[in-house]
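Action item from last week, closing it out:
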Amino acid sequence: MANFHYLFGSGKIGIVLSLDVGKARSSPKYELSLRPYLAHQSKRSPLLFLWIVELLPALILAIWPHPGLSDSKARVVTLYVSVYDAQGKPVESLNSGDIELLEENKPQVVSSFRFEKGTPISLGVLLDISKNMAGERLSFALNWLKSLAEKLKSPDELFVNGFSDDSQELVDFVSPEDYLEEPVGHVGTGGHPVTGLALDRGMIKVREGRNAKKVLLFLSAGYDVAGPATLDHITKFGYPIYSLAVDIGGGEGLKGSIDWLKTLSIRGPAIKVYAEQSGGFILPLDSSTQGEDALPKILFALKNQYRLEYTSKSSKKPGDILKLQIKTKDPGYRVDYLKRYQIPRR
């Protein structure tokens, strides 16, 4: 804390202006105060103080917080973005001039927008082992997961958590080459799929990954709803989430649950909402053909995305949530991105 005192006035009575400059944990602190001054308190010449006062406005403007930055510093925000054409094919040739970014409906300057190929990933697989996945569905999901692991390679890594009423670790982080089907091959099914708990634990676990890019993948029948607390956690961590809705074999799955979920007036099955809010997508798996088609789509999305950077000057405080919008000049393109992000806490 630094204290600056300025006297102006003449004769036996004047005014002392005190400027206290300190630094709080989150932002500088400035205090101005005026108090009476009696000439006999100081022998210094009032003319000197009058000269100093002439410089006071410039001093205050130089150190006073600027509007919009009083509660936070400018910060660089990094987002992963995917763009697809009308046929669903990835678009890889865009630059920063081809997109528009809004933060809380305010245009932002994109400082960097580049397509990154083959990015190493730390992947968390969240495998539904509830009663809705019994029989053919679980077997299909495990075979599909094995095929995905065979397509990945070090330094990629993955872990597998199983979930129903609870969430449990089935395979800890392992390189794709060392992935073993045995630990999950004989897992039983039962209970109800609590996807919110599964996602929360998955986001905590994937933070341990050694790669900068961290991604989560649901393999689930889709029978659950998305809670607001989990959606807030998605904004906090910012990891892309992809979902495969395993409907193979019929019965109660994503399609069967949609009609039931409509009666609750919500936005849809949890795994669909999680994917859309985080910048991922959902694909149905109701046949072996769809499983084969989904593999290259998921693999490409996991490893290849645009990396966008911009400097946010929002005056909102750490912990607050900001809404984002990203558009392309071509209205026919679909853009997948994190819809909201939380300002990091210091």
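Closing note: Residues 2-63 form one domain.
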